[in-house]
């Protein structure tokens, strides 16, 4: 991999991790989950989508969130200027980002509601042409 590819990958990873931190904190602050978990999650989805799309930073847009299964909460992002990645780059990005997300989930007390309710999180990243560039799934067991 050339140094230019490494720099571009590092920059994209930084942007994506920043977006993750923003949305994790945003979700945590908006949810108290005082009642039934599924009902509360539906309320959060509705509220977050009412404000979407939302620019997280100059490159990252949160397009929407969704409940895609009983206890699976997914984020959908568009990354400005991103292209598809080689398999090696994709694997490296997947590992780096997954570790960063898990670290954030474990360290953020607002997000304990996810792990205590066994919620799986999905992160879907698209380029501006709507091509999927990266998909991550984090099971509750991974961040408890």
How would you describe this protein?
The structure is a single chain. The chain has 144 residues and is α+β, with helices and mostly antiparallel strands. The protein has a single domain, classed as GMP Synthetase, Chain A, domain 3. It is 50% helix and 24% strand. It has five helices and five strands; from the N terminus they run H-H-E-E-E-H-H-E-E-H. It has helices at residues 3-30, 37-50, 87-107, 112-116, 140-143; strands at 54-55, 60-69, 72-79, 120-126, 132-138. The protein has a five-stranded mixed sheet. A hairpin with a 2-residue loop joins strand 2 and strand 3. Helix 1 packs parallel to helix 3. The longest helix has 28 residues, at 3-30. The radius of gyration is 15 Å and the shape is globular.
In short:
The chain has helices at 3-30, 37-50, 87-107, 112-116, 140-143; strands spanning 54-55, 60-69, 72-79, 120-126, 132-138.
Write the layout of secondary structure elements.
Blueprint: H1 3-30, H2 37-50, E1 54-55, E2 60-69, E3 72-79, H3 87-107, H4 112-116, E4 120-126, E5 132-138, H5 140-143
Parallel strand pairs: 3-4
Antiparallel strand pairs: 1-2, 2-3, 4-5
Helix pairs in contact: 1-3
